[in-house]
Amino acid sequence: MTDTEANDLELAAEEEPRTSLSRRTFIKGVIASGAAVSSVGYLFRGAGTALAQPSAPGSVERLITLTVNGQQRRVDVLKQETLAMTLRYKLGLTGTKLGCDRGECGSCTVLVDGVPVYSCSMLTHGVRGREVTTIEGLASPSGELHPVQQAVVDEAGFQCAFCAPGFIMSTVAFLGQNQSPTRAEAAQALSGNLCRCGDYNKILNSVMRASEYVRRG
Ligand code: FES
Ligand code: FES
To answer: Which of 33, 170, 178, 189 has the highest CB neighbour count under 10 A?
Structure first.
């Protein structure tokens, strides 16, 4: 965060069976060349055949199961793949935005076990067994918006809104810890998120209104 951006925020404070053709076709389509060993291990695991064997020492299983927005998602993940890439380009959860892709802007913020993280800076293999929540997972199954989302709508809280998903996820986590923040506390808590439009006043208006909605239940 630059001094200018910090100043702006300060000012504002005031995601078949193994013999079926479709399954084999799917596997072939999803896994790039060089993954033959790991895909064979997946297809014949537990089948009692001579092909059932453990992964080679030092290799990383690529077909893994993630828990995203309360759903179990089976996905092919490269060893070095970031969570942001998996969410956007493997699971189709494009609500998570990529801005800087280097841990500076907060556009890619998601929750892992309720804690906000920069998904561009976290390896997907690191969230196995953990609960990932994205902006797509906030509204209720019936479509009712999360209080923070509703507050943003009511306050017209963002200009272009590219930064909105990241701010909203950070706000959800923050209000989970502090339902009655001051404007300055909210600004401090959201200092890891940047808005290129500099729309901090309206963003903080939204956070303060969201806190009212959260307290109201
Ligand atoms: S895209 Fe992740 S912090 Fe900017
Ligand atoms: S409203 Fe445009 S980047 Fe924040």
So the answer is: 170
Domain residue ranges in the chain: 60-134, 138-217
Find the ligand nearest to 152 CA: 2
CB-ligand 1 contact for 1 (6 Å cutoff): no
146 token code pair:
């999360």
**CATH number for domain 60-134, candidates 3.40.50.2300, 2.60.40.2000, 3.10.20.30, 3.10.20.580:** 3.10.20.30
How many Å apart are CA 161 and CA 180, to the nearest integer?
Answer: 25
Cα 195 to ligand 2 centre (Å): 5
Whether the CB of 200 sits within 6 Å of ligand 2: no
Q: Under a CB-based contact definition with an 8 Å cutoff, are residues 73 and 86 in contact?
A: no
| Tokens 């404070």 found at | 13
Residue 97: closest CA among 171, 191, 88: 88
* Chain segment 144-194, per-residue pLDDT in tens: 999 999 999 999 999 999 999 999 999 999 999 999 999 999 999 999 999
Instruction: Indicate if ligand 1 lies below 6 Å from the C-beta of 116.
Output: no
The number of the ligand nearest the C-alpha atom of 160 reads 2
